């Protein structure tokens, strides 16, 4: 969500805000480094930048990134392997929800709700070719993983699909999609943790009515491996990332049930424009005219609808900040679409 402008070498002497930042799953640490570098230049800095990262390998990679790019601010960074019991400040969830496990379902020919499970196909022809759907590897020779339709879907999944169908969604036979049954507990945990502050979620997704459109009848599950995107979750098992688009309506509903207020919802492009990205680019270009081409290319990547501008959505949830008006939602708040 940040532009790739040249980063200042922070001195670590910018005033502190008295608030903390908590990033959920910091990936390579690039976003944390950019945020800290920008806040060191413009102020105020958070007292602490907390990173929830259960993977020791990723945590070490994040430390290396921050050590290289903002060494003077590394002492403000702290790593957690679980949510703190209490937190006041800003929580950032950038591409977190789309990577959470989902339950897949399909509507059967008789309208029944089927759960798409993982099965093992041991039926191969004489050439060793697979005879079912998909081409994933199994545990041994002559086996492979396949989709298996179960007539005994979990009660939670059935309830969630019935809720969609009560709104006229996911009704036609053969319709297949995904539901994140962990979204509500995840949001509830954040709501219980947050005393006063903001939760900012940036991710792929749609409002529910768009997420489950009739023409989106094969769902949104995507696999990312070796810089390629495809739809086979059984290829390169353990070596690829699986994602599914977020139902932002479900997120807003879960936030309300967790005692959180909806601060706004919009596209990434609208959010960044509301935050003044055009002025920041102009200011950076004036300081370094040679960087203008790179800045413009980065801005296009972040703002154009065909790239990240509309594919990424931003939703804010607050607690104890009734009068807060976020500039990121000032250009076009799309909360009415949720």
UniProtKB/TrEMBL annotation:
MF GO annotations? protein-arginine omega-N symmetric methyltransferase activity
Q: Does the keyword Methyltransferase apply?
A: yes
Q: Please give the name of this protein.
A: SAM-dependent methyltransferase
Instruction: Tell me the domain of life.
Output: Bacteria
What residue ranges are annotated as transmembrane?
A: none
Return the SUPFAM superfamilies for the record: S-adenosyl-L-methionine-dependent methyltransferases
Keywords per UniProt: Methyltransferase, Transferase
For the region Disordered, give the residue spans: 1-20, 121-143
Q: Which GO terms describe its biological process?
A: methylation
**Cross-referenced InterPro entries, in alphabetical order?**
NDUFAF7, NDUFAF7_sf, SAM-dependent_MTases_sf
